[in-house]
Structure formats: C-alpha cells, structure tokens
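re: ur question from yesterday

yeah so i grabbed the chain u mentioned. its 288 aa long if i counted rite. heres the sequnce exactly as i have it in my notes:
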Amino acid sequence: RTLPGFCAQFHLILKRRSVQWWRRMAIRIMFFVVVEFAAAFLGVMDRYIFQNSAWLPTGFMNAQISVALLVSVYSLATFGSPDELPVFWRESSHGLNRLAFFLAQSLLDLLDMFIFCMGFTMLYYVVTAPDLNFRIYVIPFILVCYVASGWGYFVSCWLPFEHVPLGPFVSTLLCFVFGGILGLPNEMSTYLATPLCEIVVGILAFTRWGVPMNFFQYLKETDVGAAYMSTFERFLYNSALQDYRLGWHLPGDDDYFWTGVLSLTTVGTVLRILAFVGLCNTNREKQA
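ran it thru and got these structure tokens back, copy pasting raw so excuse formatting
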C-alpha cells in the first residue's frame, strides 16, 4: 500500500492535534490559573513583602525559574502522555512519519507556551511595575519558555515508559539546578572564571542569558538611582554589572541582548533535536 508523504501526514496530524487541543480546554484553563497564581504570588512577595527593587537580577531569576518550571512540566504531556504513547507506537509500526508527528505536535504546543508565558509575564509585570518597556521586558521570558519546553520534550522523549511518572520530578529538578544553582547572579564570577565552566553554564543555565538580558536593558533604559541604593543593593548592582561582563558576548553587544537571543534560541532548538532522537529510539521495540 502507498503511504501518505511527509506533508500529507503533517497536515493530518496537525488537524488531529488541533481537535485534541480544543477538547482539553478545561485542563488548560486550570493550568493557566495556576500560572497566574504563581505570577501574582511572586510579584506580591517581591514588591510588597521583601520590597525588592524591580531591577534586581535575583528578581528576574526567580520569575524566569518559576515560569520555566511550569512550562516544562506542562510540556511533558506533548510526547510523554501514558494514554497517547501506545497510540504513537501503533501508528509508528504502521508507517507514521515520526518527523511529521514531532513537528506537528510541537508546533501547536508553541501556542500553549506563548499563552502561559504571556499570562505569567504580564501579571508579574503589572504587580512589580518595572520601569522598562514591556515589549523588551517579555522577550527574555519567551526565550526562557522556549528552552523550558525543550527540556520538557527532552525528558518525556528519553524517559522509558515505565518511568513516565517521574517526568514532573525530573523537569522540576532540572529547572531548579540549571536555572537556579547554575544561574545565580552572585556566583557568575566563579562560573565565568574558566572557559570550561563558562561553556557548561552557557549551555545548561537558561537564566545565565535571560537575567542579563533583562538587567542590562533595564540599566540601558532607566536610571536605577545608584546614589540612593542601600549597601546591599549597591553590592548586588556592582557585582552583576562586573560579573556578567566577564562572559562571552557577540561583538558590540555589550548589553547581552542579541547574545541571549542567539544562545537561548540555539539551546531550545538543540533540545528539540535531541528530543526527536529520543522519541525515535526510546521504547524502540514497541514501535516496530
């Protein structure tokens, strides 16, 4: 029998995925509420409880880790749903084009990623009220979510079927380690001291790029009032200003914006390629 080609299969899978997307609106709304609660809670804590300045790198880091964690956990279901994996295996054994399946699934998933990212960032932005144009402010968050969803795909595609329930734990751990520990602003002088550490942190730590993108754009567009800072704030300000500049950046890109765009886009795309390899090779005996 003659099987449909790549384009025909891509179109069919995308149409089927669109129907499934609409039918899961209730779950999506519930998750969106969780995302909004996280943004409001974090924003209130930063502005009113701790009274942190909106330009602090630690504030950007906490916000980016939070939205990355939520997006990565949500993305696990795209390729790691216990209910859909047997269907994928059966279709693969009957001629399904795996690349068409992967692209169609992940393409529509970008819509969910964008909705959650914009919902979180807009509410956090409104609560913390930073003196920075929102169109600039949101770009690092979108790129961080692109990387986070890539980690979700990577985890779900490489976990054996019997270990699928561990997916949320693994994704949470990766976001905490790669976004938090390896992305600590006050440790950048250590991480960027040697080429090997800089390469590892540059590849794994999404906040290593996302935070300086926001921080330097804030300094570029706003007077943060260095003369009125507390001793602790002045220490954080000077440390971030000096330490982040120790790392590599594109020629002429002293505010790290386009370097961050390039790095995060590259990492998110590579994670998707590795996820596709995992999708094709993990549980391979079930796809035959």
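noticed a couple things. The first helix runs from residue 6 to 23. also The chain is about 75% helix and 0% strand.
anyway ttyl
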